[in-house]
Amino acid sequence: MQQFKLTLIFVFLFSASYSFAEKQYILNSPNGKIQVDISVGNSIEYTVKHDSDVMIAPSPVSMELDNGIIWGVDPKLQKTLTRTVNGVIPAAIYKKKEITDQFNELTLTFKGDYRVIFRAYNDGIAYRFVSTSRKPFRVKSEQAVFNFPSDYKAYIPYVREDRTKSFEEQFFNSFENLYTYTNLSAWDKKKYSFVPLLIEANNGKKICLTEADLINYPGMYLYNEEGSNSLKGVFASYPKEVEQGGHNELQMLVKSRENYIAAYDKGTEFPWRTIIIAENDHELADNDMVYKLATPTIDMDFSWVKPGKVAWEWWNDWNLYNVDFKTGINNETYKYYIDFASKYGIEYVILDEGWAVNKQADLFQVVPEINLPDLAAYAKSKNVGLILWAGYHAFDRDMEKVCKHYSEMGIKGFKVDFMDRDDQYMVDFHRRGAEMAAKYKLLIDYHGTYKPTGLHHTYPNVINFEGVHGLEQMKWSSPSVDQVVYDVTIPFIRQVAGPMDYTQGAMRNASKNNYRPVNSEPMSQGTRCRQLAQYVIFESPLNMLCDNPSNYEAEKECTELIASIPTIWDETRALNGKVAEYVSIARRTGNNWYVGSMTNWKARDLEIDLSFLGEGDYKAVIFRDGVNADRVARDYRKEIITIPDNRKLKIHMAPGGGWIARIYR
């Protein structure tokens, strides 16, 4: 490892009336490829380079308090502190068992009770403000600037298209948009973007902007108001007046806001502004920066947390067939789902929206067709856990009572939905929800929410997040919505932030020309093997089977494969990939490797390098696109092969196709 390098340079600048000393620091990554130049003069600025390429041009950072004080303007540097870390982070519920944690760090302490910390990793840099105040204070605004040296192209997840009347309304959104691929200078000035956002830099390098350790602060949006090469952070102000409303009266709608974005009783650590750098696209598909930067796991017992799969009823509209009862939201239907889950070793069944009385925002009011204690007891007898869907406000208003009551009943967790905001109050709600659920040994799946920022590291019972344009969109999206290209884009952008509640597993599959939205009997875009591969490609410790048990029973080979695929892993390796074109990822649990590939609408031949297997004889069960999968997307072939001695495996994927293998000795 290259030794930590920190250089202090005094540069004297003169004007007609005064002079001052500008202090400059150089912080290198452990491997020496990334360099952060930090300048402290009348402002604090940073520049990021990768080898000889400038990734981020000089960019200022500051925070303004509501009393007129601005951290980072005319800063008075008191001292600096450096350290080097070369360790390992254990991860019980993640895509790998251990994470290499290697970085160099510079802490700048300033007069006025604040610090700025910079870290340089081998795969990016991060910085954060820290307040050491012992008194209450409020943050009015933050200057988070990302200046780029050229007019790069970017993959931009704009806030929803229908929210362009005002910027305020864009702070109320579901964080599940497609990407717009365009130059920075062509930014739509009517729209904010959320993060992660991907930039194409020089020499094929990529820059992924996001944030980490968002615990009690508003989430960051990005905006380019000048049509320049610069992106600036934007943050929702703190809610002042809210009223119940929104989806089925389950949300709290912001009617007015304060003149500050965050308030504190004392000092705090602010989120990390995170700049991830990749020389090759596929490196992004196996990045750990957000997890590494998060607050470590709190001191509670999380050994009870059980990841796994979920039989889900909402996407398939409770549409069972070949049964002798009327399907719907009733005990007979849910017992059928429980029996199905038990048969295939699926850990959970979810009761999605409909089990609680509509428009009451009261989780103690259960519809008469459902007997929850009976269902919980039946599920327990079948070794299946139940997870309950909950609207955000219904969960928030009676949080401890709800958690205590349903934990005692035997419920295993909640899928909390329709937050649709990330101001300080809502971000803190996520932390409080995680903490309360952990107290009563309940899992939390945050649906209808923003991207993960590491809360699943801090509270491992937070087992999944949405913030993704998932398969549910295929229930209503027009054929112009290209989910196939999106699927081979998110492993390099959204998934960099953490796990995704994408909800794959469709058994009705459609080629490009055959897809149409069908709300009650939905289909996927792309082939059957694409759906199977997503159980390897997409990171999801709580992974749903979106289709109905009747369809799965008619497709037992595929169902048995899906049920066998783990949801957490000992090791992950991104093998190849190109943003918006294709991706291949290998994941290991024990002695078994699972490898998945997906392509866009272009038929593709790939050579998969399996040299990581090491010596010995290996076999593989392979599911590949059938010869007619370009026309009949559900066409596939299953075969068992011997892995070649040269560890090179050639595969073919149909348009919108996929490929998956389980490799074993």
Structure characterization notes:
This protein is of the alpha+beta class and 665 residues long. The protein is built from 12 helices and 38 strands. Strands 1, 2, 3, 4, 5, 6, 11, 16, 17 and 20 form a 10-stranded antiparallel beta sheet that branches. The protein has a 9-stranded antiparallel beta sheet with strand order 7-8-9-10-21-15-14-12-13. It has a 7-stranded parallel beta sheet with strand order 27-26-25-24-23-22-30. Helix 3 (372-381) links the parallel strand 23 (348-351) and strand 24 (385-391). Helix 2 packs parallel to helix 3. The chain is globular, with a radius of gyration of 25 Å. Mean pLDDT is 96; it is low at 1-19.
Summarize the structure.
By secondary structure, the chain is of the alpha+beta class. Helices cover about 15% and strands about 35% of the residues.
Please describe the topology of this protein.
Elements: E1 6-14, E2 19-28, E3 34-40, E4 44-50, E5 53-65, E6 70-71, E7 77-90, E8 98-110, E9 114-121, E10 124-131, E11 137-147, E12 153-156, E13 180-183, E14 197-200, E15 206-212, E16 221-223, E17 230-234, E18 239-245, E19 251-257, E20 262-264, E21 272-278, H1 289-293, E22 308-311, H2 331-344, E23 348-351, H3 372-381, E24 385-391, H4 392-397, H5 399-409, E25 413-417, H6 424-439, E26 443-446, H7 455-458, E27 462-465, H8 483-487, H9 494-497, E28 509-510, E29 524-525, H10 528-537, E30 542-545, H11 549-553, H12 556-564, E31 571-578, E32 582-589, E33 592-599, E34 604-609, E35 619-625, E36 636-642, E37 648-653, E38 658-664
Parallel strand pairs: 22-23, 22-30, 23-24, 24-25, 25-26, 26-27, 28-29
Antiparallel strand pairs: 1-2, 2-3, 3-4, 4-5, 5-6, 5-11, 7-8, 8-9, 9-10, 10-21, 11-17, 11-20, 12-13, 12-14, 14-15, 15-21, 16-17, 18-19, 31-32, 32-33, 33-38, 34-37, 35-36, 35-38
